[in-house]
What we know:
Layout: E1 4-5, H1 11-18, H2 20-23, H3 37-51, H4 58-65, H5 69-73, H6 79-91, H7 106-123, E2 130-131, H8 139-150, H9 159-190, H10 194-208, H11 215-228, H12 233-253
Parallel strand pairs: 1-2
Helix pairs in contact: 1-6, 3-4, 3-6, 6-8, 7-9, 9-12
Amino acid sequence: MASEFTGTGDPARSMALLWRGAAEPGPRPGPRPGLDVDRIVSAAVRLADAEGLVALSMRRVAAELGVGAMTLYTHVPGKGELVDLMLDSALAEMYPDERSVVTGGWRARLEAVARANWDLFLRHPWALHVATGRPPLGPGLMRKYELELRAVDGLGLPEVQMDLLVTVVTGFVRGTVGGVQEKADAERVTGITEDQWWAATEPYVAQVFDAERYPTAARVGPVAGEELGAYDPERSFEFGLVRLLDGIGVLVERPSRG
């Protein structure tokens, strides 16, 4: 469940801050000011990377920078605008080599899109808990969207299907990568690993499990457990990505009106 939402701040202030670089003609002469928006966003991202969004507040970011909270408000009006800036900053890191999503076959391009989104959430797990129903329309997001659309351009698909295809791939990644953080959170909260948890519960499961009532689970579970062990989100991602691309191949070969 999302713990923060983009678009909760003042839209005009958010847009002005997101596109501040485009509005500035270049660096001004003289010494750089001790505090600016970039430094604030970087500090907020570092804090969220280390402790999650639960730790994020204007006061805490100010403390990380060694300034008073009111000083932050002279640069960023509030937490809503700050979350927009943080997410756009994280998205701007994606695709350092833009060729990965614009060269080669469509399958390789979409795989590059999926892996880039997977890597983003591993670097910044907090981004998974930011709901983007009102996306921060900054340069980082717009570049990401442009490049991901290029990955499916030239396939003869209508524009709506191009957009939906990108959404399907990125949505799949968002759904599977959550398992990585869930495992880490469970170990942190309980103090035991998933393997240790299964080892502790297995004797009790063996006592109460009714193989006659659940015959399919009795057949599949032991085989899957022996090969996969505890839940493996990376394995689910790799398996699902191949199946997803196979399905997309049907659409590419026989475009539909859907």
